[in-house]
Amino acid sequence: MAVFARPRQALAIAGVLGLALGVTACGTGSSSNSDNNNADSAECAPYEKYQGHSGKKVEIYSSIRDLEADRLAESWKQFEDCTGIKVNHDGSAEFEAQLPVRVDGGNAPDLAFIPQPGLLARFVERGQAKAASADTKAMAEENYSADWLKYSTVNGTFYGAPLGSNVKSFVWYSPKMFQEKGWTVPTTWDDMIKLSDTIADSGIKPWCAGIESGEATGWPATDWIEDVMLRTQTPEVYDQWTTHQIPFNDPRVAEAVNRAGTILKNEKYVNGGFGGVRSIATTAFGDAGLPITAGKCALHRQASFYANQWPQGTKVAEDGDVFAFYFPAIDPAKGKPVLGGGEFVTAFTDRPEVQAVQTYLASGEYANSRAKIGDWVSANKKVDLANVANPIDKLSVEILQDDSSVFRFDGSDLMPAAVGAGTFWKGMVDWINGKDTATVLQGIESSWK
Length: 449
Fold this sequence. Notes:
- InterPro entries: Bact_solute-bd_prot1.
- This protein has helices at residues 7-12, 41-44, 66-75, 77-83, 95-104, 117-125, 134-143, 146-149, 175-181, 189-201, 219-232, 235-242, 251-264, 352-361, 364-373, 391-401, 411-414, 417-432, 437-448, and strands spanning 17-20, 57-62, 86-91, 111-114, 153-154, 157-158, 162-167, 170-173, 205-207, 297-301, 323-326, 336-347, 405-409.
- By secondary structure, it is of the alpha/beta class.
- The chain has two domains: 7-167 and 341-401, D-Maltodextrin-Binding Protein, domain 2, CATH 3.40.190; 170-339 and 410-448, D-Maltodextrin-Binding Protein, domain 2, CATH 3.40.190.10.
- Strand 5 and strand 6 form a beta hairpin.
- The two termini are 21 Å apart.
């Protein structure tokens, strides 16, 4: 399951905030900035291509709220000042439920940040989403890999570039604990299992995990399966699985589930700080990694956004209290599989000023503007690592920009909601609670049919 609109993100960025952003135009709608007293022409030069829409308004709807919404406002303020386009952003905790209601009711926003390719496709199928302009498409192709752009391409038509991203293929740990114990960060799956055995033999449960998340309970376990699926199978088989070209109970899926089970259902390995295997089902995902800070477990597989879950004052850095390493591949020679998520800037109107904002949000200028503000990850190739101060964000961007990385989107977000956010989640809870793999996968497969 992927990004910002889901319950897991609500823990990190909660509340509702509508932002009406002030604007000071750089000019009168032409490409000239000579009449502007608030920004010189050098500052506004990157925005000349977006001129000609002074006084126009663009409405954006998303799940991004509170501090993150304030950062959004800051990230595009220079664009507003130099183009005269006023960007009004509304962030809602009910985004996923309300966006279809608004669109179906004829009250669609101009742009929406959609974190689920399946939801985007729903609007396309109903003729509600607008194809991206040629300028937006060209900007996106310049700045994003084909792996990313295919998730907002429906029936051969491109609908919008990614905005923010996250990397899920991480294992959190304590650098201090590793140094004290003489443990080394593993670079292969086999090394990780050997390390797990070493930690277990020392009297510490090596892994801690938690999949409780209210109505979304089960989603962290689906991320485990997806990450392992990318490591036991080719990216093409992963794609076949998420699109149901192979059944959910295919032997290759069972292999991935069982391999994940060698950790998650191993009483020797889990659940450090909480209890046995079944405690995973009742441990809140936001609390699941915290035993690392108390020395009660050593490893916790969770996404880059888990950096927001550590107690206040926790230093997240390679020499800090906690950090993360790449969830190792089984065969590194076959590349670096990366599971992640992100949201896509999707248009519901095609007015010129809306297209201008959509194009700008796909640009390197925007990505670096937002990166400088902090606590943000993007797959935009133009992001300068010097602008990414947060160590875990920097590591995430490095992985996304690594030519050996093979990116795939969160599988449950690519599946029909009844499966990806329904039987898959529930099936993983049943699996943790003792139900066998074959029965669980057969149940999910039956629900897809």
